[in-house]
Amino acid sequence: MPSITYRKALNDALAEELERDENVVIIGEEVAEYNGAYKVTEGLHARFGDKRVVDAPISEAGFIGMGIGASMLGVRPVMELMFWSFAYVAFDQIINNAASVRYMAGGTINCPIVIRGPANGGTNVGATHSHTPENFIANTPGLKVVCPATAYDAKGLMKTAIRDNDPVYVMENTLLYGQKWEVPEEEYTIPLGVADIKKEGSDISLIAHGRAVITSLEAARILEEEDGIKAEVVDLRSIRPLDEEAIVKSVQKTNRAVIVEENKPFCGVGAQIASLLQYQAFDYLDAPIERVSAIDAPQIYAKPLEDIQIPDAARVVAAARRIL
Amino acid sequence: MTYRSFSFVLIAFLNLSAYTVTTAKSSNKKKTVARKKTGKGSSGSDINASLSPEEKRELYRTMVRIRRFEERSLKSYTQEGKIGGFLHLYIGQESVAVGSISLMEENDHVITAYRDHGHALAVGMTMKECMAELYGRATGCSKGKGGSMHFFAPEKRYWGGHGIVGGQTPLGAGLAYALKYKGLKGCCLCYLGDGAINQGAYHESLNLAALWNLPVVYIIENNHYSMGTSQKRSSAGSPLAKRAEGYNMDWEVVDGSHIYNVRKACDVAMKRAREESRPTILEIQTYRYRGHSVADANDKKYRTKEEIQKYMNERDPINVFKQTLIEEKVLTEEDADQISKEARDEANESADFANESPYIDEKEILTDVYWESDHDRDEIQKGRIFFNDDF
């Protein structure tokens, strides 16, 4: 099985869906002639032309809203946000229009739109470019949000997102774009709402999404080597819909849970998971649920401090040891 | 400037502009075309001259139906307590929706803001489905899930009904984008109020529409008040449509008191969109007699009674058109009374219908949220999508 980067996996997914469905169109800042600010769309403009891969002006409220309007008439836009941090100037479109229009129209309209782009800190760019809004988005009925952690998941989830008839917001990670994973050459898709056990274990569940999954895998390795602890790593992959069954099943087996995310803690995804576990796995828990999140301040610029702000394996290991 | 003195200026302006249409191309070649006084009663251009007597009566009937519908909804709201929330009435502005929508062809689409009842009836939605939506009932156009500000009828190419000022303007560009993408010859009529022109989303939409030559017609329904703030106090520069020049777009200011003026200007803009795939901004001068919404307690404080009365007496679009049709001998006073009576009866029936209709079952709160949840495609969506533990 070939090993390709997360970036290439996304690029392949986009190319395959452009090929498959003539209603799919890619729109975003620098996605066409520039080949993508992070090269996710590299080569697509040359291959598919002006109609299918479109450079938008720096105008997120305008072009995201335009994409939502076009999707109501059956176009399937895949909109790139250079950073998910830029979504905030388009929030009315993203929340009020994309999420609510189907409901307010009594189910007579749907918006098959994908909004994708990186949503992560850890890149030494300060607070305005380091937001992780998966919790904001997941809080809104009508929207779906997925956070792939590997190249394999990125490709399979992106293809499904494009075929989904609702708004699906895909949050990628610039720190993962260059990393490689094995990805099959034959076509595949991954349904939304199916978690993946990235590593099986019996002693503690590390529940994570996005790059925090990679951090959790590293923490699981350390726990095994240094403590002889077998940690299970549950990758949510999709925040909404959420695979509650997989989360509960893992904790019923391990009786302990650490929830790991790169987002800030208050009202974060981890809070929802903790609520779920106390309700559905109360009798199975042998210890309080631990949460590991970004340190609760705006993202700091200084690199050594930002590396501390975002959870690393050592913090996950420490949290696990507190409840073992 | 006091409200009173401003009102005087406003009325003076409206009177001055009564028979003028200001036009401009995307260049700076602005010109003012004076219309003959008698032109008010004549058809004025081919698009109106070609109307049959029955078509003219139908335009009149639609305007009257909108007014009687809204008067009935006001009664339901204030006297009967049957309608909650906001109710933004269109009374006084009927010529704009009816005139523009009367020119729609098979690939033309409509999207508007929250003052949306007139457009809904103009595209052919029934009073019953609209009134029932105001009552929040299952028989409403959105099953009671949308309300006054959110009427929809996509099968009639009517895409709402949007509650956030200016929020619909990128969607309008998107509908036009989709038409162009699919190679369909049509246009999108995207309405907004004069208060919306200062929203960023509107300007972003104008840029995209002009940059990508989208077949969209932005229609500013200028009723001169952005809620309780007059145009002078909220918008720099005048006329409002002139901002189009910054985007190299065509624009025109139209006296909306006569439906023929509206149709004439819209015909040019809609043809430009369909034939040349180019956008236009039309600023149609109009007036609302009621408050921003029924809940607008200061309705009479930010403008004078005299200002409202003067408009009603001299520039009411229904009265103005009635006079024209009587002069053209296609309508009599008796016909007009009959049309009014029928519209009133229809509105009353719609209120009875709404009042007798049930609410949707509470389980249906959770339908129409996701297409995939409503259709259950397992290969796309699994897992939990709604999160109440107790419902």
Characteristic key phrases:
heterodimer; A: 324 residues; Rossmann fold; 2 domains; seven-stranded mixed β-sheet; five-stranded mixed β-sheet; 11 helices; B: 391 residues; alpha/beta; two-stranded antiparallel ribbon; 9 strands; disordered N terminus
User: Percent of residues of chain B in helical segments?
Assistant: 40-55%
**Unreliable stretches of chain A:** none
The side-by-side strand order for the widest beta sheet of chain A comes to 3-2-4-5-7-6-12
Which structural class do you get from the secondary structure elements of chain B?
alpha/beta
Question: Measured on Cα atoms, how large is the radius of gyration of chain B?
Answer: 21 Å
What is the name of the CATH topology of the largest domain in chain A? Rossmann fold
Number of domains of chain A: 2
**Overall shape of chain B:** globular
* Helix/strand/pairing category of chain A: alpha/beta
Question: Topology as H/E string of chain B?
Answer: HEEHHHEHHHEHEEEHEHEHHHH
- Described by its quaternary structure, the protein is heterodimer
Q: What is the number of domains of chain B?
A: 1
Largest sheet of chain A: 7 strands, mixed
CATH superfamily of the largest domain in chain A: Thiamin diphosphate (ThDP)-binding fold, Pyr/PP domains
Envelope shape of chain A: globular
